[in-house]
Amino acid sequence: MINVFCSHKLADFINIEKSFNIEASFINDWNAHLFNVAGKKWIIFVNKKTLYSFIIMDILKKDLMNLSFLFIDTLIKQLDRENMLTRYFENYLRNSDQIVSFCTTDNDRKTIGSMNDFIYQVKSFYADDKNLEMTRNYVWVNLNQMPSGSLSYKTPRESMSEHIKTMANNK
């Protein structure tokens, strides 16, 4: 099971009740937050282990019915965009056992701090020239390329790539 721990803002938006007794799995757990860019709602997801991130852009209330599907589909597209997606990992994500469970926040300071940094970078990039398409491209190409001190100065992309390889070797 994939757990997505949502910020208070996102939990209110998708109407999640307080979560109890969550079976955490550090490898499969993510944090998420709702933020605005150019008046549009975006949801950022950050993997707890690798700090690998992706964003669902221009989210509407009607999209919430399929948020689990959007999560998996957008993650797969981002991994494919970065030439990291393997057949094994795609099958793993699409496996029916990989149900996405949206929960209230777990207050993981490390992940939330990295997520806030990513959001700041995205908003700053947009603020420079107010070009939404350039900001989208920036997110798709650069978000996972910035080294992180909490990853011993590896990038989230490198960390996720190692994670995917390790999973394939341990199958």
How does the major sheet shape up?
5 strands, mixed
Given this structure, which CATH class is correct? Alpha Beta
Q: Please tally the helical runs, counting DSSP H or I stretches of 4 or more residues.
A: 6
N-to-C CA distance: 17 Å
What is the CATH topology assignment? Nucleotidyltransferase, domain 5
What number of structural domains do the residues give?
Answer: 1
Could you state the order of secondary-structure elements as H and E?
A: EHEEEHHEHHH
What's the overall geometry?
A: globular
Q: Which blocks of ≥5 consecutive residues have pLDDT under 50?
A: none
Strand content: 15-25%
Structure in words:
With 171 residues, the chain is an alpha/beta fold. It has a single domain, classed as Nucleotidyltransferase, domain 5 (2-Layer Sandwich), CATH 3.30.420.10. The chain has six helices and five strands, in the order βαβββααβααα. The longest helix is centred in the C-terminal third of the chain and has 21 residues. It starts with a strand and ends with a helix.
